[in-house]
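[job 4471] stage=fold_predict status=RUNNING
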Amino acid sequence: MLPALTTPPSPPRRAMIDLEIVRSNARILIADASPNRIVVDLRGDAYGHGAAAVAASLGAEPVDAFLVSHDEAAHAIRASGVSIPAIQSFQADLADASLIGPEIFGLDTASVPDPRGLGLLPAMTLSARVLSTKKVGADEGVSYGYVYRTQTATRLAMVCLGYSDGIDRHACNGARAWFAGSTHPVAGRVAMDVFMLDVGDDPVSPGDEVVLFGDEAKGYPSPVAWAASVGKSAAEVTASLGDRIVRSYV
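[job 4471] inference complete, writing structure tokens
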């Protein structure tokens, strides 16, 4: 008898990167920069999106060079079969090139404070699984220092992302995450490996998915909105995400 087929569980912490969105964003930005030569900034492992995978996805686009942080990133890009050069500083023939940065991932920059206004969509969806749940009463203090207190009786979900994964400890100061069709407040300071989410009356079980940020058209907080709630740029947030977060590509 053949063994029953099972679907392996998705990773407890996952960053799903849509490479078609990266390509679409690139085409918008390249058209805007034409006729200049184009350098795409993939430093910081493509701001946490994976430099080799992103470079491979752009191999057929009119890009003149990739800007990377170190030799290892350049080697990884070459090993992926991409012929576009990966450089660590601007060469003389690229001195006047246009540099496309984090906006290629739908992230905000000084020159593009509103990526979606230009039609640039977030390429990354950051999600994690619920580890456990707890019912609590009104005026219950949550997490370190009890800086968050519940307004009414509610359900708390423990989510398996923490500051060791690059999640800002002070996300409780206004950050919200998506669960079961709507967003909910981060409850209390983020711990090393987990954070608490106040999901109100929504039924919640271990294994359920929580989305920290992604495409706002799907109801998720955007990476720009999430970053603003912790006083950072979205590029700072995605570039800080740790290695325990599994990068997946579509």
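[job 4471] summary: The radius of gyration is 20 Å.
[job 4471] exit 0
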